Amino acid sequence: MITMKMGGGKNMLWMVPSVMDEEVKSIVVCPFVVLLEEQYSKAITAGLRCHNYSLQNLLVSPLGKMFSKVFIDEFHDILNCHPNCTIKWKVLAKQFSKMNMQIALLSATAPPHCLELFIKPFGIKVSDLTNVRSSMNRPEIRIHVVSVEPITVRESLNHLVRALKGHLVDKECIFMFFSSQGNVELFTTQNKCASYHSNLFEAGNTEAYNLDLWD
Predict the structure, then answer these.
(1) pTM of the prediction?
(2) Which residues lie below 8 Å from residue 191, measured CB to CB, with a gap of 6+?
(3) Which has the closest alpha carbon to 136: 11, 12, 13, 3?
(4) Which helix (H) or strand (E) holds 55?
(5) Which of 26, 50, 61, 195 suits a disulfide with 43, CB 3.0-4.6 Å?
(6) Distance (Å, whole) CA 88 – CA 59
């Protein structure tokens, strides 16, 4: 298991061996479509031969037996995923546990105290695990905590975000998390920013549309 901060170089673990030796074949699991497309693009740019497969079909095919390593990116999603994805994750993890291949679990957010829960679906015991964890210090990320009266919280939040936006430089972003879909809709309307929700609130407000706004 490899835990490294975002941008720490986890992708190099599966890219470099294949760049150095074209006979090295690995399966890379990306649970998010946007992440998959990004990884695929990076691999193509690096000159690697790669294909986007439906994993469940690949693993039971003769082609699936040609691979000796599997890299599962964002593996913590097996516990944190949408309820509709839980069964798919468990089936996939069980398939990998029965295959004769090395499993590398990659994450930037897997807390140490949940280690046993994360690896159990893959049939891995703590005693059999090699755990590599780098520094998770992120000096480029700052957390601002502001105490406000409940009645004024919305306007105070809008004021704070507008003020911070004026100090952002290229490639800097602000993430906002809300507990309800209604609050997301209201905030994005007032501040003209991109939003994403698992159940987006109006026709045409797709994930792709919001990613374009984000870029």
Answers:
(1) 0.62
(2) 158, 161, 162
(3) 3
(4) helix 55-59
(5) 50
(6) 14
